[in-house]
Amino acid sequence: MSTVSKFSKLPRWINRPLQCPYEGATVLQTSRFNKGTSYPSEERDAFKLHGLLPPNVQTLDEQVQRAYQQYSSRDDDLAKNTFMASMKAQNEVLYFRLLQTHLKEMFSIIYTPTEGDAIENYSRLFRKPEGCFLNIRDQHSIESHLSQFGNEEDIDYIVVSDGEEILGIGDQGVGGILISVAKLVITTLCAGIHPARQLPVVLDCGTNNEGLLKDELYLGLRQHRARGKEYDEFVDRFVQSARKRFPRAYIHFEDFGLSNAKRILDKYQSQIPCFNDDIQGTGCVTLAAMMAALHVSQVPMEDVRVVIFGSGTAGTGIADQVADTIATETHRPKDEASKQIWCIDKPGLLFKSMADKLTPAQTPFAREDSEWPEAKQNDLLSVIQNVKPHVLIGTSTKPGAFTEEVIREMAKHVERPIVFPLSNPTRLHEAQPKDLYEWTDGRALVATGSPFPPVEFGGVKYDIAECNNSTCFPGIGLGAVLSRSRLVSKKMLVAAVEALKARSPALEDPNKPLLPDVEDVREISVDIAAAVIKCSVDEGLALEEGIPSEDTELREWIRAQMWEAVYRPLVKP
């Protein structure tokens, strides 16, 4: 049976023609239908495009070549980011094909670190709105505002941010809409989530960024952030309205503040299919890298000692994933598994006696005071000296925190120090990879939070693994969307981690990176989606009917529903 006959009735089947209700200039002004100079003669006739375009019909590849020349002529990264945003507004297919063609080069332009610059300058660079803007002063209109973006079957994937903790640059208020937009670009690019079936959302509840509040061009609410009951009611009204309007949609929470991120996830993850990338995505990709490194270093999970430096949303998210995995693999309670993790934040090592100064996410990882005699210091170096960790993870945004003294101390006690400086952007990294190899005589196993060039040490070239959430969260979302899973369970996340780990080049060669390259991400997303879907079915969470049970057919079924950047034939409704 052909792929066409097997899958052509699926609502997301990628090969059917595109129904276009417009004619003339309106077609060209609509990003979804615009093909620029690529319309064939019959479409120029049918949609009254003659006279609106030069006569030469070009291929998509020729358009990509021209667009890349224009992109390359821009003077700096922010100008390139702005150019790409303009292209996305003009021609959706060309935008994504250009990105796919030059993925490694452009990834840092459309996402971190350059997207952070674009978000900081959102109100000054603003040209055209994109996404859904909801504000806390107009809560009663949330449902009607959402209704402008389609009917109940139209949206698969929602990314929502309140803009409080953006990409290591903090509170950006209404500019947070751009992180929702960027994350959805990545879901399309990396996992084929249909761009027409996505919705970026910002929840504007004010900002505590005084620079924005004093900026006469700032486009968001001019008030300090709402907190407490008013804030919680706003978030809940959004979640309930989104689920009512788009009952099939998966909700991805992004860049919420430290005091809100974990408790919001905890509240809704047992009710709806939802995900927090800063907590779960970061945890999954870091855990996959760590498990690959433990395979290389031959340290069993039951013995591993982990120090996490920086216990905010990302750090505690990683700790949570690690604890879940230790508990699962060793068949021990999670609170016992958590004792293999030492978390450090601004006050130093976290202790139970800090009580109400701890966030809900930090509390499970705080140590008993009796474990740590008063005479001992609780700074990073002292913790390394006493714990002798196999793994050191940085999510502190404190540049240079992993000093030579710290790393050499760690390397005294373990054969293969596993060191992950993950803070973004690059200028906030806790250490440089070249230093880590030098200070450990080439023994370190390294993964970073941003791309770094290869390092040469002792005549060996080491490619640096990047703990890029984009190799993980899009595949998890794809699996949840296609299976219509009622929830995103812990077992589904573990399945995703195992699928990503299985792709680690270091499993075949210990000098290779701990994680696969982002250029392979679409096939990685197929692996992850297949693992997530199987787990959802096994747990009785999948609501979609007709999911293939055989592995090869399941992968075909997944690929048949992954959007690709190609021009589809246009037809009239």
TrEMBL record:
Entry similarity comment: Belongs to the malic enzymes family.
- Show the taxonomic lineage: Eukaryota, Fungi, Dikarya, Ascomycota, Pezizomycotina
Q: Which GO terms describe its cellular component?
A: cytosol; mitochondrion
Q: Which SMART domains match?
A: malic (SM01274), Malic_M (SM00919)
Q: Where is the active site?
A: Y111, K183
Q: Catalyses which reaction?
A: (S)-malate + NAD(+) = pyruvate + CO2 + NADH; oxaloacetate + H(+) = pyruvate + CO2
Q: By what name is this protein known?
A: Malic enzyme
Outline the extent of the Malic enzyme NAD-binding domain.
279-537
Q: Which PANTHER family match?
A: MALIC ENZYME-RELATED (PTHR23406), NAD-DEPENDENT MALIC ENZYME, MITOCHONDRIAL (PTHR23406:SF34)
Q: Which residues form the Malic enzyme N-terminal domain?
A: 88-269
Question: From what superkingdom does this record's organism come?
Answer: Eukaryota
Provide the cofactor note recorded for this chain's UniProt entry: Divalent metal cations. Prefers magnesium or manganese.
Native organism: Penicillium frequentans
GO molecular function term, any single one:
malate dehydrogenase (decarboxylating) (NAD+) activity
The record's listing under Gene3D superfamilies reads: Malic enzyme, N-terminal domain (3.40.50.10380), NAD(P)-binding Rossmann-like Domain (3.40.50.720)
User: SUPFAM superfamilies under this entry?
Assistant: Aminoacid dehydrogenase-like, N-terminal domain, NAD(P)-binding Rossmann-fold domains
Q: Which co-factors does it depend on?
A: Mn(2+); Mg(2+)
